[in-house]
Write a structure and sequence with these properties.
By secondary structure, the protein is an alpha/beta fold. Helix content is 55%, strand content 7%. It starts with a helix and ends with a helix. The model is unreliable at 137-162 and 283-288 (pLDDT under 50). The structure holds adenosine-5'-diphosphate.
């Protein structure tokens, strides 16, 4: 029995009005969110007795099963929903998780890609990496596979030049990116000044365009920075996970790539952001096939622009957590020729990030410096997790009290205790190996002072 005052109150309320479905749903969701899995399971079952076909409750029950490693039970719960055409994509992702747990990566991949092709926002990179890692589909041979249906990935139809990527209008600018002054300056010179002062650049014979490779530990803010660069430029933002457009069938990935570049070209000025650009390199060595090389070449020729002006007004930003896997051909002049390191935030930067993350929240006293001190090794994504958690707890308190209670320093400190920071230390360890032992070209010089620090 959870000893959590908010939950106890909810439970008591549910006991007093056992037929109140919204209340039971809320209680079950809270139990699940807080990790009381057996209690959550019982509560979802009780709620399902009131509404046996409710997809959200079925999904909740399945989630509770999955987190208890009861994958068969989860699939049994999900099966009827999965058989319904147009079922919520999130249900497909849950099924993928359960199938992977059952040791069936091929079926998991099918469910996962079917769901994410309908709604990209349900994508889960960590699950995806586990699925692709487990599936390891053999490299297909063109003649065998031409026109065949993929057993792993449903071939997303791409009629004409449509792309699965979407065009966003970025609502953030560099003012929303805390710290990283040198990184912002590098991006300003590379991306913004040529478009803002084209005459000056023309006078020095420099062409706008090309791209930048952002690299650094996961969660340090690469995507956030790219989105902010688009906002700063007043440009459209197209965000593509490279792994999403890679397709095991010859021809499809090339088509997806072309469609994505074309989408950006139709929406210029545009920042075209490729996350996980190392996926292409990984792909290449995995497949050891002509197809892999063909794909890299296609990416490079799209990057170069088929003709001189093809990419005018299109700025390519690519990001990776594993820059050492990115093909050196990408870093030639005019391509992603300026690797820019996005470092983990120091104490001052952490305080500044927290300030940004909290700025639209109701606050009482707040000492960001104290929280920054208590969150050593936390990156931006972790700090966002801390603030989200603190806000959630505060919301609970406010609901119980019937009035809004503002956040205080202690709330963030308490939340920080329950968030495990992303593996910056491990990342620095790997980086150190590359910098010390595989830095012949001097490509990782920028990392040298960082890896020498104590992590
Ligand atoms: P990455 O792409 O490097 O994995 P993200 O850009 O997804 O990391 O960062 C995760 C979240 O952390 C962002 O959505 C943003 O809210 C927050 N964040 C990271 N860095 C900063 C920063 N410098 N300033 C403000 N917020 C940040």
């Amino acid at each position: 029995m959870p000893d959590d005052a908010g939950l106890q109150a909810l439970r008591e309320a549910a006991r007093l009005s056992p037929d109140n479905l919204p209340l039971r749903r809320h209680l079950a969701g809270q139990l699940l969110a807080k990790g009381y899995l057996a209690d959550a399971e019982a509560e979802f079952r009780a709620a399902l007795a009131l509404a046996p076909h409710d997809p959200e409750l079925i999904a909740g029950l399945a989630d509770a099963f999955i987190r208890q490693s009861a994958f068969g039970a989860a699939m049994a719960a999900l099966e009827p929903l999965l058989a319904t055409p147009g079922h919520p994509p999130a249900v497909g992702v849950l099924a993928a998780r359960a199938l992977l747990g059952e040791g069936d990566p091929a079926k998991a991949a099918y469910r996962y890609y079917e769901a994410t092709s309908r709604d990209a926002s349900v994508a889960d990179k960590e699950l995806e990496a586990r699925i692709t890692g487990a599936a390891q589909p053999p490299a297909p041979v063109a003649s065998e596979t031409a026109g065949a249906e993929s057993p792993f990935l449903p071939s997303v139809p791409l009629p004409g030049d449509t792309s699965t990527a979407e065009v966003e209008r970025s609502g953030v600018s560099f003012a929303d990116v805390a710290g990283m002054e040198t990184v912002k300056e590098a991006l300003r010179i590379k991306l913004l000044l040529p478009t803002q002062q084209p005459e000056m650049f023309a006078a020095f014979g420099k062409r706008a365009g090309g791209g930048v490779l952002l690299y650094g530990p996961p969660g340090a803010g690469k995507t956030h920075l790219a989105r902010a660069a688009a906002g700063e430029l007043g440009a459209a933002f197209v965000n593509v996970g490279l792994a999403d457009i890679l397709d095991m069938y010859v021809g499809n990935s090339e088509r997806n790539l072309r469609a994505t570049f074309d989408l950006a070209r139709r929406n210029r000025p545009c920042v075209l952001f490729f996350d996980e650009v190392d996926a292409l390199a990984g792909r290449r060595s995995d497949m050891r096939s002509a197809h892999g090389r063909q794909l890299v070449n296609q990416f490079l020729s799209e990057l170069d622009g088929v003709d001189q002006n093809a990419n005018e007004g299109v700025l390519v930003l690519a990001a990776t957590n594993a820059p050492w896997y990115v093909d050196v051909a990408f870093r030639r002049p005019g391509r992603l020729d300026q690797p820019v390191f996005v470092p983990p935030p120091d104490r001052q930067a952490r305080a500044a990030i927290l300030r940004i993350l909290c700025r639209d929240k109701p606050l009482a006293e707040m000492d960001y410096d104290v929280v920054a001190q208590a969150t050593e090794l936390f990156v931006g994504a972790d700090l966002k997790g801390v603030v989200d958690r603190a806000v959630e707890a505060k919301l609970q308190q406010s609901i119980s009290a019937g009035r809004p209670i503002p956040l205080i320093t202690q709330d963030l400190l308490a939340a920080a205790k329950s968030v495990r920071p992303t593996a910056v230390r491990e990342w620095m360890g790997t980086a150190r190996n590359y910098v010390m032992h595989a830095n012949d070209s001097g490509a990782w010089d920028e990392l040298m002072p960082w890896v020498k620090m104590k992590w």
